[in-house]
Amino acid sequence: MEEIVDALVAQQSELWSLVTGLDDDALRRPTRCSGWSVTDVLLHLAQTNELAVASTEGRFDTAVGDTALGDAVVTSGPIGSVDDWAAAAVDAERGADPAAVRDRWRASADAQVAGFLAGDPRRRVRWVAADLAARTLATTRLAETWIHTGDVASGLGVELDPTDRLRPIARLAWRTIPYAFERAGQPPPGPVAFHLRAPDGSPWDFVPDAPAAGADPTTMTIIRGDAIDLCLVAGRRGTAAATGLTGEGPDAAAVLDLVRTFA
Question: Which segments of the chain have a pLDDT < 50?
Fold first, then answer.
């Protein structure tokens, strides 16, 4: 767990470095996340960080009902997707003082780290779509913070260099492929391997356990390319066709379409 939390701390610090000196006008600038300002992105992260804290403390369901996420369901009626739900929650609290939202996010980020470091990383915790191991939830929070750091940087005209924090994000995308297919109502895929290039050019290989004796190797799907491209596609910040990612095998097209790092 400590290595994931260390990466989360570093990612939160990168985002903090982008927003700490901004005035209100800059905090209201639009970002790569369509329809959201820098403040909206920070608000969304604060809301979901606070829910992650509640999850680690065993009070997730109560917290949902007590926050804007719960209010969003009450005011907007049933909400079909997690994205719609998150957008409604931001809408419910939009308009707060930008600097206050930034401070709320900073406090929630610190509390989230403390929550993940407390207790067994293998313990099951409640999240939006399913129960997860606390370590997995921490990795999803790393992935989301990385995605939204990029959104903010793009809106501010800042180019960020990829780091080895992408490794657990890419691994999460690989491990949750069956979940992605399930969420899309698709039959489960066969075995999938990722052969990726790290930012420093070294290989990051994520492969399934050794196949059973006599298994047909043509049933394996293999995705190749840069880790940054895979993570952007999994974070819905790009399409595979616009990157150098390639795939071979029976499920390649579906994997590149459905891969994701969030609920």
Answer: 72-79, 212-214
